[in-house]
Amino acid sequence: MDTFVCKVCGYASFREAPEKCPVCGAAKQAFQLMPDVIKKPIDPNNLNDLEKKHIPVVKISKVCGLVGPGCIDAHIKIGEVMHVMEAKHFIMYVDVYHDYNFLCRVHLTPEKINPVISLHLKVVSGKLLALENCNVHGRWIAEVDL
Ligand SMILES: [Fe+2]
Questions:
Q1: 93 Cα–ligand 1 center, Å
Q2: pTM (2 d.p.)
Q3: What topology is assigned to 38-145 in CATH?
Q4: Ligand 1 (single-atom ion) residues, CB below 5 Å
């Protein structure tokens, strides 16, 4: 699938460039087609150490203890082996999509938080996609069915 990246904020849009970047508001002209911007595991069934630290792990909970019925929880952890969060090497943000449409960006800072986010979803079916951006190793993605 074609991937267009906003040169201003790094947001990745699938299929086509949007009229306006949903993260920073940049115009369509700021987007550049970058087919290889998202890293892929060499062998998805046998991840190497780098892949284990970068490919998001997504856990879906159909029962939400906070909102109640109709809410689905998505817990996204960066890395089966959790990625470090140090000033020189950390996860800058996680972008989440539903059926390839943007839902939100969560910015992270190093030192005081783990590279883990949780979202409460109103959608109950379709695909959830998590894209993380490591300041050293770039973008990695995971996709799960709700
Ligand atoms: Fe990294």
A1: 12
A2: 0.95
A3: Immunoglobulin-like (2.60.40)
A4: 134, 136-137
